[in-house]
Task: structure prediction
Amino acid sequence: MRTLPLAGPRAESAQGTGIRGVGWLAGGVAAALGIFFVVSSPTLGGVRACLVVWLVTWCAWAVLIRPRVDVQDDVIVLIGSVRDVRIPAARVDAVRVRAYLELVVGRRRYTSAAVGFRPSSLARGHADLARGLVSEGGRREVESATAYAAEYLRSVVAQARERGGEAPPITSSVAWIPLGSLIVLVLAAVAAFSL
Amino acid sequence: MIRFIFVRLITGLLVVFLVSVATFLMFFAAPNDVARTMAGKAATPETIALINHRLGLDQPLWHQYGHFIWRALHGDLGYDYYHQRSVVSIIKGAAPVSLSIAFGAAILWMILGVGSGIISAVRPRSFMDRALNVLALIFYSMPTFVLGSMLLFFLYFKLTSAGHAWFPAAGYVPWFGKPDPSNPQHGFWPWMHHLILPWVTLALVTAAAYTRFTRGSMLEVLSEDYIRTARAKGISERRVVFRHALRSALTPVVTQFGIDLAILAGGTVVTEQLFGMHGLGWNSLTAITNQDLPVIVGILLVVSVFVVVANFLVDLIYAVLDPRVRLY
Result:
């Protein structure tokens, strides 16, 4: 898990580094393998093999690398594999972080795999932090970027609710870059295999 | 929960993909001339070219990798270079041996390791605690082949010499299936009888680490507030230890157990070699010695799947062991 500043002082981003490491490695290897297949054997077979391993790259990128949680001006943006959801912090009733992040808005729950404890670390005593029962520096000092991200999201929500006012509606949009690249890859693979 | 399983499944598949690429590149793309080794010293270039063609080694790399993955997805891991036996049949024959050794030893080391860890933690700094710690250190620092050789010498050789043939020297007897005509023994008791020494060897060496894990973890959990509360409520000490403390204390032990079991299931090279059992470890060693690439790659893939599945199961077991861990 890491946090890094984005555009301005009120913008933060969080992503899990553990699974992202696997994602970068597998995605990078598959991408390089695809290029190598085409370069070493510029035939239809090489192109087919390249497209198949690039689908692995897409999978690694979309499922493990792309998911992210951004906080921009009191809006929590859950960036998913093929869908992004913008949730005004003032609308969030509860922030739960267990194996992944869960934002409760009324009866609906919005989740993101970008922020979450590994089950082993939940078992090692981060569970109280995950439930929001103990703050960092409280009963048990836990050094964890996930715990920090969870606390940060809770503080953003608490501040937004304190300020009050009319919160904008929750919006959801399709992420066209991953979806488009998947469609292109699948179409290219279908074409290559039917030739 | 579904999201957790989905992400873990994708991660696991990507790890297996990485292992497949790494093993393929290491063994198929590395400059080792299998055809020349198979053809012998007096082989002509034509013979070598023919062998390369038959093995598919003259095809482009993408073709070899694609062919390898495609066949693997259809349950075909190729044929061993020297005897033309199917790799899947080799693994099918060897896996029960390795799994028998690994699971039996695992049960034994969990009983010994966790049991002694609890005794040590419940009475810290007592004579029992110190004695168990010393024993754990002795076995922890003892290589498997030393302990195995000692057990064979005393429990097989010495006892048999004295007329008490209580333990067999070597070999594996199957529990299920048709008996081998050369070795008519099979069934549960002969199977267990032949596995006792390998189990004890592996269990004693591994249990030592579990004693220390369990002790450390139990001491930490026993100092928690909720344990004091449970004692203050008048709950019996046995219930406090086994019902409240042990469940939480077992989580780090379970992590290690998953990894150890998966690795052992993939073959215990030294133990199998020592006790003459032809499991995955023995087959891996033979294949590495002969540069029998399809067998090595096949076994490595199976072991990587074991490790991925074991890690996934361990994560699910956390949620069962510790009520604070909820994966939704």
